[in-house]
Amino acid sequence: MNFASVRIITDDVDRLVAFYEKVLGVSAERPAPVFAELVVPSCTLAIGHSETVHLFGAGSAVAANNRTVIIEFRVQDVDAEFERLKPFVGEWVKEPATMPWGNRAALFRDPDGNLVNLFAPVTEEAIERFSGRG
Predict the structure, then answer these.
(1) 74 and 18 in one domain?
(2) Which in 20, 25, 39, 133 has the greatest CB count within 10 A?
(3) Residue 28, class by beta-carbon neighbours within 10 Å (0-12 exposed, 13-18 middle, 19+ buried)?
(4) Which of 13, 44, 65 finishes a domain?
């Protein structure tokens, strides 16, 4: 089994796609107006309109109501990304800091309130832990 993607359900696909295009620096693929994928080498971030949830027969998902998942992206330089993203990120939860487990990280919320973490391993142990990962 291979991990394929994370999908965010939203009531405003266009707004969230535009935001993540800026964050990730890639253009979204839009096979339908209610669905988009932002593909980077290590993962795919999918964004679907709340109208799409019923297609899976999975009950309901409430857009902009996530309180348990953090979407994480490994970056080369957390401080540089923080400076680059400051102009359009509305809510920074944590400015760049080094975490006890050896990652430098910055945490913010996307326009729907989902938590997004940018991190880079910086200690010897953290760098070793991530060696060999994509």
Answers:
(1) no
(2) 20
(3) buried
(4) 65
